[in-house]
């Protein structure tokens, strides 16, 4: 119903804004690197190591009660947060997190598991019959391997995307697409450093999803650019790109809009377990839509493309047929 209010034809001069947009993107990337290296990412248990225990909230018990019970176990800083579990029932839960324990020269993983068992025992003594929904301990060796694997997955995804675009289009398109993906990933990580949302394996999955979503949006724009460049060989490349973006603009905004509606629902009602991943996807969809226009397309305009309009070289002595 709302589609009838969308103009059938738009004529926005996107490429005239490419230089201010480029400056804006450079500032965002520089700020993101600064935040990542100074403030740092708030690594979750997956990457930093430690334990996470989730219990069903006992009646008339709050976070302070649980924190007081665990305070005498010598675990260091313990995070205790209340949340509502996922699913139809929506059971109230308490999530307990604590960092990697000092092994005093012994087996680090064994020390972490011992601390995990101590917390479980203390909870069962204080709240008889408490339902421990999940309990996991991750040692620093395993968490380091997970972080390396996650970063390798991101690097491989970017490399394969560049290869795909090079084969399907031209190398100029490939550089523009990968630059946009790099732009999206770095700025999203910078936002995580700023907000201190937990950065874990779910966030890596969200980043890979952002890479795929942004690439899909960029390929649609590039496909239309290639089509219009062949049709209007005498038209300036900047105007061709503007024409292509305007033709795909309604599709881009409607797809991004409906995706954001679903993601905001997950962020609001999904609880703390899904908040980090949904936040990454929300921010990634927005920044990915922006980069498809003002990073990928602008770089293609700067590099130029082969439009098949070069004059044919005459061969001396050849008269033709």
UniProtKB/TrEMBL annotation:
Main location as per UniProt: membrane
Pfam short name (any one): Sec_GG
Domain of life the protein comes from: Bacteria
Coiled-coil portions: none
The keyword Phosphoprotein is annotated on this UniProt entry: no
Complex and partners: Forms a complex with SecD. Part of the essential Sec protein translocation apparatus which comprises SecA, SecYEG and auxiliary proteins SecDF-YajC and YidC.
Reported function: Part of the Sec protein translocase complex. Interacts with the SecYEG preprotein conducting channel. SecDF uses the proton motive force (PMF) to complete protein translocation after the ATP-dependent function of SecA.
Family, as annotated: Belongs to the SecD/SecF family. SecF subfamily.
Name of this chain's protein: Protein-export membrane protein SecF
Species of provenance: Henriciella pelagia
Highest classification ranks of the organism: Bacteria, Pseudomonadati, Pseudomonadota, Alphaproteobacteria, Hyphomonadales
């Amino acid at each position: 119903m709302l589609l009838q209010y969308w103009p059938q034809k738009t004529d926005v001069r996107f490429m005239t804004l490419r230089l201010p947009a480029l400056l804006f993107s450079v500032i965002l990337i520089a700020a993101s690197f600064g935040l990542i290296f100074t403030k740092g990412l708030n690594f979750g248990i997956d990457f930093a190591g430690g334990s996470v225990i989730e219990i069903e909230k006992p009646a008339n018990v709050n976070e302070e009660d649980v924190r007081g019970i665990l305070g005498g176990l010598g675990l260091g800083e313990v995070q205790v947060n209340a949340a509502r579990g996922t699913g139809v029932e929506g059971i109230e839960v308490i999530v307990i997190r604590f960092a990697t324990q000092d092994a005093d020269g012994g087996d680090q993983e064994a020390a972490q598991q011992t601390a995990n068992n101590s917390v479980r025992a203390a909870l069962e003594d204080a709240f008889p019959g408490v339902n421990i929904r999940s309990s996991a301990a991750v040692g620093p060796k395993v968490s380091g391997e997970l972080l390396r694997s996650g970063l390798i997955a991101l690097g491989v995804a970017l490399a394969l995307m560049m290869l795909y675009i090079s084969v399907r289009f031209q190398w100029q398109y490939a550089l523009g697409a990968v630059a946009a993906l790099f732009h999206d990933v770095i700025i999203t990580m910078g936002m995580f450093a700023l907000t201190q949302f937990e950065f874990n394996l779910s966030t890596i999955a969200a980043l890979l999803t952002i890479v795929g979503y942004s690439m899909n949006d960029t390929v649609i724009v590039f496909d239309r650019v290639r089509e219009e460049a062949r049709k209007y060989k005498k038209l300036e490349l900047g105007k061709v790109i503007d024409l292509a973006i305007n033709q795909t603009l309604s599709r881009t905004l409607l797809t991004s809009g409906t995706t954001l509606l679903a993601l905001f629902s997950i962020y609001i009602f999904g609880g703390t377990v899904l908040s980090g991943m949904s936040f990454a996807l929300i921010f990634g969809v927005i920044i990915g839509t922006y980069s498809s226009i003002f990073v990928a397309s602008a770089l293609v305009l700067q590099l130029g493309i082969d439009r098949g309009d070069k004059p044919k070289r005459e061969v001396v002595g050849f008269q033709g047929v």
